Amino acid sequence: MDCLTNMQYIRELLDRHNFHFSKKLGQNFLVNPTVCPKIAELGNAKEGYGVLEIGTGIGTLTAELAKRAEKVTAVEVDKRLFPVLNETVGHFKNLHIIHNDILKCNLSELFEQEFSGLKIAVCANLPYYITTPILMYLLESRVEIDTITVMVQKEVAEKLTAKVGSRESGAITVAVNYYGTVEKLLSVSRGSFMPAPNVDSAVIQIKVGSNYSKGCKDEEHFFKMVRSGFSQRRKTLVNVLSSTMGYDKKILVEALEKLSLSESVRIEALTMENLIDLSNILS
């Protein structure tokens, strides 16, 4: 429905259903006519694929996904949108909309029920306030996902796509690179949304699948070390890990020396290989 990017139609649609935007749910609906088709095309919405959409808005991206993918399952937490969606995308036979919180879904069961025999991709315009928890939930679930293509806040996109071992990196950078490879696909201005947020956005894609997990002896320790290190990133890694994880400083210095790293190094300077090796030594 081309009208799903027509502002007058959208206002009339929402008024007709007495719908009001929820700040609590971080609702900023994507209405740019060129962005949703690009997300669908770049996000593997095609024959042979089942696509999970997280959050539907009024169905602008949903419709583009359903036009292309073999099956689309959308998980929407706001039940007030269902009468709207019945009007905008209810005619798609390959679309199933579920009322639930994605963070409360058993992804293995969901994918088995909805996408049996299909490759799986995730596409979404994620609420800013819950971007990281959703991404980590998808990645940590270890379900068979080919790609995760999502709209996120510009600053988050920069953090996600930063090089591990650079000043721009953070704990989420390390986590995403542990589970896959990430790239920025396109920039999206704040005027592409209704209502317009106060920041610009970007679409990033994670290609799931990494060799790093094979070399990590203790994932729980690895991620605890990474979170601890970045929690006080201006301090040396020796000081941070001794205070947060209880390690003797001498042990930490010896571990860093084995990796030819200075005792004054900060966590932001360590590569993925450095981080994996350090965790393996300490654990």
Would you mind describing this structure in some detail?
With 283 residues, the chain is α/β, with parallel strands linked by helices. It folds into two domains: 2-210, Rossmann fold (3-Layer(aba) Sandwich), CATH 3.40.50.150; 215-282, Helicase, Ruva Protein, domain 3, CATH 1.10.8. Helices cover 40% and strands 18% of the residues. It is built from 13 helices and nine strands. The strands form two sheets. The protein has a seven-stranded mixed beta sheet, with helices on both faces. A two-stranded antiparallel sheet has the order 1-8. Helix 4 (82-88) links the parallel strand 3 and strand 4 (95-99). The longest helix is centred in the C-terminal third of the chain and has 13 residues, at 219-231. The protein is elongated. It starts with 6 loop residues before the first helix and ends with a helix. The model has no long low-confidence stretch (mean pLDDT 95).
- At the third CATH level, what is the topology name of the largest domain? Rossmann fold
What is the SS-derived class?
Answer: alpha/beta
If helices are DSSP runs of H or I spanning 4 or more residues, what is the number of helices? Answer: 13
The whole-number mean of residue pLDDT values reads 95
- Taking strands numbered 1, 2, ... along the chain, how are they ordered across the largest sheet? 4-3-2-5-6-9-7
Main β sheet profile: 7 strands, mixed
Q: Considering DSSP H and I runs of 4 or more, what fraction of the residues is helical?
A: 40-55%
Order of helices and strands: HEHEHEHEHEHEHHEEEHHHHH
Write down how many β-strands occur, each being a DSSP E stretch of 2 or more residues. 9
